Amino acid sequence: MATISVTGHVTRSFYENKGFEITEFFTMRDGQQGTRKYDAWFDAPQNLDGAVGTFTGLLSVKIDEWKNPDGSPKLNREGKPGQSVKIAINGATFTPGAENPVAVVKDVLGATLVENMPF
């Protein structure tokens, strides 16, 4: 299986704090600021609201078909049914960035390990 590592900000949490939307910021060729969004899935609930750091895990990709609220296909600019790619990070681990001193918490065989303990 392929792995993925994304550095970004947590912009939303869902599914009882086991899922998080990660926003990655980058500069495009024309100098404009761009963003990419990913979903990171953890095995156990995490407290990462607003966290900044690197998320690593197994890569999962799926095609998302755009739908209107009534269930009909939502059309893109060319008048064709719209699609986008959803990228997920499964079995994610989090490493905090330098500006974000959040502890790295891992669930290992039912035991919680906090990697920034002073001993």
* Class of secondary structure makeup: mainly beta
Average pLDDT figure: 84
Beta percentage is over 45%
The figure for the number of domains is 1
Using only C-alpha atoms, the radius of gyration works out to 17 Å
Low-confidence stretches: 101-119
> Helix count, per DSSP?
0
Q: Give a quick account of the main beta sheet: strands, pairing sense, barrel closure.
A: 5 strands, mixed, barrel
Give the proportion of residues in helices.
Answer: under 10%
Shape: globular
Describe, in plain words, how this protein is organized in 3D.
The chain has 119 residues and is an all-beta fold. It has a single domain (3-114), classed as Beta Barrel (OB fold (Dihydrolipoamide Acetyltransferase, E2P)). Helix content is 0%, strand content 55%. The chain is built from no helices and 7 strands. The chain has strands spanning 3-14, 19-27, 33-41, 52-65, 83-96, 105-108, 111-114. A 5-stranded mixed β-barrel has the order 1-2-3-5-4. Strands 6-7 form a two-stranded antiparallel ribbon. It is globular, with a radius of gyration of 17 Å. The N and C termini lie far apart (35 Å). Mean pLDDT is 84; it is low at 101-119.
Helix and strand layout, with pairings?
Layout: E1 3-14, E2 19-27, E3 33-41, E4 52-65, E5 83-96, E6 105-108, E7 111-114
Parallel strand pairs: 3-5
Antiparallel strand pairs: 1-2, 1-4, 2-3, 4-5, 6-7
